[in-house]
Design a protein that fits this description.
Blueprint (H helix, E strand, L loop, with lengths): L25 E2 L6 E4 L4 H12 L4 E4 L3 E2 L5 E2 L4 E4 L3 H11 L2 E5 L6 E4 L5 E3 L6 H8 L4 E3 L22 E4 L9 H12 L3 E5 H6 L13 E4 L6 E8 L14 E6 L3 E5 L5 E6 L7 E5 L12 E7 L8 E5 L13 H11 L2
Parallel strand pairs: 1-7, 9-10, 9-11, 11-12, 12-20
Antiparallel strand pairs: 2-6, 2-7, 3-6, 3-8, 4-5, 13-16, 14-15, 14-17, 14-18, 17-19, 19-20
Helix pairs in contact: 1-2
């Protein structure tokens, strides 16, 4: 900053900005047995989806591991073979991403067969469908009501071609028995689930599908209460959902919501930061605030508790796709989708 006194001229040399600078990217130099991508941004999710859709072989890391050039990569990172170095280099250069060099044994991994196909339990294209498509996922609305194709026992099963369900709604009512049966069979067959908001949590409990017994969510709504909240990365680098996030981050909540109960078998990935004052960054959250929100879980994952079900489940008390806006939270959704699709 400079001061220009009255009466003095100011003629700096300027150059018009015609385009954004391209961040550096590619594959790390040196010998490598494999390469790894940390899924820490919406751009990384899009690049990953593009690569696997193009036939590049990939594996999902289930635990942290060391990079050949130093440092530790978190669970949820994606590992590629060195034979695909050219495709990785091109993707990294185009997207400003660095594929880290690996040598030696790999961590525990799950194979990735392709970009997860996501059925969004809604009647039409909404913010959730749009956001998932923007990230490069095949995503479509699937209605669950009594007059829906999902509830038509005489027609084809709309869930047959999907790998993961994304949901912000309640469990189908008693007037949609075929929808209930098809969803139950989907989870029993290993189909994954990503739930958001209090409805997405209630869908899983005793009054819903029973896939995650013991999960309960609460919120403080009404009058436009919403805002930006600080949360702590409880799962750390070992979490396949939030592994690459820092120890503390921020998220949008509309309304403020948290889990009031979590199954004993579930892993807690994120919690609200401390008390109701420390966790609230900005927005509208009226006083008095519910004391149960202090340090409460907001992101959890685990395997279904229902007998015979092998579904992998991730639940967010907030909606990380809210109004197609909080891209900072989108990497967690991408990681949840790949982890669930196994």
């Amino acid at each position: 900053m400079i001061t220009i006194n009255r009466g003095l001229g100011f003629s700096p040399k300027t150059k018009p900005v015609s385009q954004a600078s391209q961040p550096p990217g590619g594959v790390e130099s040196g010998a490598a047995d494999n390469y790894a991508l940390e899924v820490d941004s919406a751009t990384a999710v899009r690049a990953l989806n593009s690569l696997v859709a193009g036939g590049v072989t990939a594996q999902l890391a289930l635990s942290p591991f060391a990079a050949a050039s130093g440092g530790t990569l978190p669970a949820g990172s994606v590992i590629f073979g060195a034979s695909d170095a050219a495709a990785l280099a091109a993707s990294g250069q185009a997207n400003g991403l660095v594929f880290r060099r690996l040598t030696g044994p790999l961590p525990a991994v799950d194979p990735i067969e392709g970009a997860p196909r996501i059925a969004v339990l809604t009647a039409a294209v909404d913010q959730n469908v749009w956001s998932l498509r923007n990230l490069g996922f095949p995503a479509d609305p699937i209605a669950t009501g009594s007059t829906s194709a999902l509830n038509n026992a005489g027609g084809p099963n709309p869930l047959a071609n999907y790998d993961v369900v994304f949901n912000t709604a309640n469990w189908p009512g008693i007037t949609a028995p075929t929808s209930r049966a098809r969803l139950t069979a989907f989870f029993a067959g290993g189909g994954g689930y990503i739930g958001a908001g209090t409805n997405g949590a209630n869908f899983l409990g005793a009054t819903g599908s029973g896939e995650f017994m013991g999960l309960a969510a609460t919120s403080q709504s009404g009058g436009g209460q919403s805002g930006i909240f600080y949360w702590t990365n409880t799962g750390g680098a070992a979490s396949p959902i939030v592994g690459p996030f820092p120890a503390q981050d921020a998220a949008i909540m509309d309304p403020p919501a948290w889990f009031s109960a979590v199954p004993a078998t579930a892993s807690i990935d994120g919690r609200l930061l401390g008390d109701t004052t420390s966790t609230f960054a900005s927005g509208l959250w009226r006083l008095p605030r519910d004391a149960s929100a202090a340090n409460a879980p907001i992101i959890v994952h685990g395997t279904s508790t229902a007998a015979g079900s092998t579904a992998r489940i991730t639940a967010f008390s907030l909606n990380p796709l809210y109004r197609a806006d909080p891209e900072r939270e989108w990497p967690a959704v991408g990681s949840a989708a790949y982890w669930a699709d196994q």
